Give the backbone structure.
Amino acid sequence: MFQPHSEDRLHIRLHRARSVVLTTQELVEIRAAQRTFEGAYMRTALSQYSFALIILKIFTSEFYAIGALFAVYGTTVLICSIYRRYQGNTQFVTTTDHDGELKNKFRTSGNSVLLLTTLSIGAYIGLFILTLQLGT
């Protein structure tokens, strides 16, 4: 009923995913995905924090809401990066179904892309609203 580690259901080349020794080609593939996707999310989050800090330090108090918006957006991108990393750890595994058969399980990063798209649209709408309020 309860398993000590839920990852024991996931397999890579018929080995438990937690204890498999990866080949050189598999390591290169995983590292490339980490550099490309996870690094991009982290760089985006850091750039949003930097931009928020510049707005908060340079501009007057009227712009503090915009700086706070970019800080919150950077935090949500960071959370999305953590979610993407969680999904990426189980991207190329096989899993056992209820009948005991192994099934290939390939998950794209569509969920994290949809999450980041939704957050970005919300941030741009918020930025537009805050910019319109500056004139009043």
Notes: The mean pLDDT is 77. The two ends are 62 Å apart (CA to CA). The beta strands are 10-12, 15-16, 92-96, 102-106. The longest strand covers residues 92-96.
